[in-house]
Amino acid sequence: MLRSRSVVLLAALTAAGCRAGATAEPPAVTEAAALAVSASTVEAAPIARFIEVTGTLTAQESADVAAEIAGRIEATPVERGSGVGAGAALVRIAATEVEAQAREAEANAAQIEARLGLAGGGPFDVTRVPEVASAQAARALARADFERARTLHAAKLIAQAEFDQRSAQLESAERQYDVARNGAEQQYQSLLAARARVTVARKAAADTVVRAPFAGVVGERFVSMGDYVTRGTKVASVMRVDPLRVELTVPEQYVAAVAAGRDVTFTVDAHPGATFTGQVRYMSPSVTAETRALIVEAIVPNGKGLLKPGFFATARIAQVASAPALLVPATAVRTVAGTARVFVVTGDRVEERVVMVGQTVDTRVEITDGLAAGDRVATSGVATLADGVRVVVR
Description:
The protein is α+β, with helices and mostly antiparallel strands. The chain has helices at about 1-25, 95-115, 130-155, 160-205, and strands at about 35, 40, 45, 50-65, 70-75, 85, 90-95, 210, 215-220, 230, 235-250, 265-270, 275-290, 295-300, 310-320, 325-330, 335, 340-345, 350-360, 365-370, 375-380, 390-394. β12 (about 265-270) and β13 (about 275-290) form a beta hairpin.
């Protein structure tokens, strides 16, 4: 009896539930609130075009300085990294022997000058040479004696033998004058050779100090005090680091867009955030066969010494002419997994588009594909947007 009452009660409850479900209303669906965004119109404007290239910084000048005489190093006044001026001493070689040779050469030259009557330093005049002057006087006397003898011989006042004697004396005097003159000329040539030896000896004495060929920085010192060097031994390397060169590799397809005088801006890893500026100065006359690229050199001021030879540079070379581009604010572009996207505002909703980006111009980005001039793109709240979301432009 109890079981029958339970079944009746369960049936009654089930029937009541069915009647209640038949009369209930479905719940209403509420649309999400519109997101407030800022928007900007895509503009077409001319921009300066750049070629993105890479390269390496090198010294403006670099020289391995060698000794020009043999000797033992007695001083090394510079170290690696030392700044030097043009003509500054890099190393000093013992000068005792070469200075003695210079003094000997000077003494030999002075001896010949005195013999030729050039002790006062005047120009060479063969008639001032003592031997020549003496021979010239003897020739003049012999000629006078001969003229008198000829007059007397014509008047039959002296014998033929005496006349012949005066004639022979004149001829001998003339020969002696010629010999003296030739000897003086030979001595003068010897003097020129002696003076050349003096010059060489003085240069050797000066070469005991090996000097920097230009102002710059010592890259390396290859010798130490006490080392013996021979002619041609490298003693130090010197680099001119202001200005510097930046050697850039330009792909073949951009060769026509590069010209001397174009501006170059570049960055280096050693100074993040810093931008350096140079100017194209030299261009290789040919493209390398291996890489099909052109080597371009730009000159870069380096007064503060921030740049070093060997730095890797990422550079942009300005192209010859400007070209139009579609520009949007950089905040409008959202990049996910390497793909750039923007949200185009159409009515009260946004449409997600995949775009291709180009150059960056200040706070704007060039869009090379995916947008058209006049499109409106969201510039704020981009990270929270999705395709089809309702928005309110503020």
